[in-house]
């Protein structure tokens, strides 16, 4: 986990793996943003850090997570 880059709507992890006998790293993070909201400060800092450290970043994003689990009152069963 990367706690400095995690919050209620973002959870970043650093994954290390071996490829061709070399250790490599990739950052993965699921992110959630409500319709009309902007990415969090933690997300912006994570992108900047990955650029600085030359790390690949994989983002799984739900930019309209309408469900009661996400504190939304506007959702459907899809």
Per-chain topology:
Layout: E1 13-19, E2 22-32, H1 41-53, E3 56-62
Parallel strand pairs: 2-3
Antiparallel strand pairs: 1-2
Task: Describe this structure as you would to a colleague.
It is a single chain. The protein has 78 residues and is an alpha+beta fold. It has one helix spanning 41-53, and strands at 13-19, 22-32, 56-62. The longest helix has 13 residues, at 41-53.
Q: What are the main properties of this structure?
A:
single chain, 78 residues, alpha+beta, three-stranded mixed beta sheet, elongated
Shape label: elongated
Number of strands: 3
Average predicted confidence as pLDDT = 84
Structural class comes to alpha+beta
Identify low-pLDDT runs: none
List the strand order in the largest sheet. 1-2-3
| Portion in helices | 10-25%
Number of domains: 1
Supply the number of helical segments: 1
Distance between the termini: 31 Å
Give a brief outline of the structure.
The protein is an alpha+beta fold and 78 residues long. It has one domain. The protein has one helix at residues 41-53; strands at 13-19, 22-32, 56-62.
């Amino acid at each position: 986990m990367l706690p400095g880059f995690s919050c209620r709507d973002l959870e970043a992890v650093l994954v290390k793996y071996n490829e061709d006998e070399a250790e490599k790293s990739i950052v993965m993070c699921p992110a959630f943003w409500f319709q009309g909201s902007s990415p969090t400060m933690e997300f912006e800092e994570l992108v900047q850090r990955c650029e600085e450290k030359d790390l690949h970043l994989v983002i799984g994003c739900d930019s309209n997570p309408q469900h009661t689990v996400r504190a939304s009152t506007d959702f459907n069963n899809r």
